[in-house]
User: Which sequence fits this backbone?
């Protein structure tokens, strides 16, 4: 089973496509769990001077969703998170909910979460061959995507992209890099648990 999946990975195929139905349901439930974790992390919001964007813990569950669930289910978790907020539930960092919330200062980051989780899971899929350095590369790419989406969105509010970068990226870079290192460490720890208890691994027979 593992050999077959290794061949599939080498061919660029998505290993999650071969998951049995019961395992797919498990990952779907986990995706919902990560959506709720992202919502909880949004409530740890710290207002910062000079920016309408609060500092939150959301980057951590976003990165972990991609590293632990893979590209497809990781992105699905963030789509589910957005769906909760667009449906009117108070899951976002700032007050408000519904479709109009996306037009606020954090709308770009929220859309970036979906892409960030997808690319994190694409670059460093949850397989036994994924090492710490590869996870770090995935995390850096995911953080860059999130910041780029947020800054481009803020560029429509601020006079220039330079002002948007100073308000929407610079204050958060160090904090997000720290969360990225933590995400890599946690993903590695989960991988070790999966090797000890094979039933926790999506690649087990």
Assistant:
């Amino acid at each position: 089973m593992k050999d077959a999946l290794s061949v599939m990975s080498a061919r660029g195929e998505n290993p999650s496509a071969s998951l049995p139905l019961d395992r797919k349901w498990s990952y779907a439930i986990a995706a919902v769990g990560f959506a709720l974790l992202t919502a909880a992390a949004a409530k740890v919001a710290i207002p910062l001077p000079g920016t309408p964007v609060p500092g939150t813990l959301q980057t951590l569950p976003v990165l972990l969703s991609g590293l632990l669930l893979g590209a497809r289910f990781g992105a699905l978790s963030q789509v589910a998170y957005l769906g909760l907020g667009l449906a009117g539930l108070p899951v976002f960092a700032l007050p408000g909910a519904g479709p109009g919330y996306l037009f606020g200062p954090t709308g770009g980051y929220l859309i970036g979460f979906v892409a960030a989780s997808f690319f994190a899971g694409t670059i460093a899929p949850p397989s036994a061959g994924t090492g710490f350095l590869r996870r770090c590369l995935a995390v850096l790419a995911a953080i860059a995507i999130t910041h780029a989406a947020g800054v481009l969105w803020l560029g429509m509010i601020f006079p220039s992209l330079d002002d948007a970068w100073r308000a929407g990226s610079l204050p958060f870079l160090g904090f997000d890099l720290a969360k990225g290192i933590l995400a890599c460490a946690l993903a590695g720890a989960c991988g070790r648990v999966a090797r000890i208890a094979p039933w926790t691994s999506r690649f087990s027979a």
Summary: The first helix runs from residue 2 to 10. The chain has a mean pLDDT of 86. The chain is about 65% helix and 0% strand. The CA atoms of residues 109 and 164 lie 13 Å apart.
